[in-house]
Amino acid sequence: MPLYEYYCSDCKSKFELLVNNHRYADDVVCTKCHSEHVRRLLSLFATPHGSESADLYDDAAPSMGTCACGGNCGCH
To answer: Long-range contact list for 61-70, CB < 8 A, 24+ apart?
Structure first.
């Protein structure tokens, strides 16, 4: 089951939700105020690369900006 991150426009809260079917991913209500004015956020994820399991993410850490853009937005 995928884990989605949502933002509620009414109470301004972020929450995560496990959704068992992709077609229901946009049909959720806020877990805090039960509003239907929620939107799914774009979530970032890390993928392992290389052959050494001990340092899978060592190369990725220095290139990441403070906004987690990976340097693509020009923030640094």
So the answer is: 68/44
The per-residue pLDDT for range 10-57, each reduced to its tens digit, is: 999 999 988 877 767 778 899 999 999 999 998 776 677 665 555 555
Does some domain include residue 57? no
Residue 50 falls inside a structural domain: no
Q: pTM (2 decimals)?
A: 0.54
HEC secondary structure over the chain: CCEEEEEECCCCCEEEEECCCHHHCCCCCCCCCCCCCEEECCCCCCCCCCCCCCCCCCCCCCCCCCCCCCCCCCCC
Number of domain units in the chain: 1
